[in-house]
Amino acid sequence: MEFIYNLNEIETIAQQVIDQNPQKVILFNGLMGVGKTTFIKALSKRLGVENPTSSPTFSLVNEYQAKEGLVYHFDVYRLKNEMEALDFGIEDYLYSGNWCFIEWAEKIPNLIPEKHNVITIEILDYGNRKLILD
Q: pTM above the 0.90 mark?
């Protein structure tokens, strides 16, 4: 499924993604600065997260309470290898049944559950974005 949006429409698009009933583990692909974290913030808000959200670049994972369960936001960009992810217990998060949004998942390809979705975001002209949900 493909969506074209601008920042004014991001929450509407986030709700449309949720309405597609994706897997609870979602990988986010796109160049640095394309808006992955911004879209994750919008998804989290639509899932009922009320606290401010931020990038877990240095903490690796942020946890948020949503209306129904937890939302985990991972940024594994700084990991050197998959063992570092195993050391902080990533598998416990991924198989918890809670939402798991993962930026830079290509760093941990062998740890990703079989059932997952991928969101790819690209920058278009005039500040628009193209989002593909696979």
A: yes
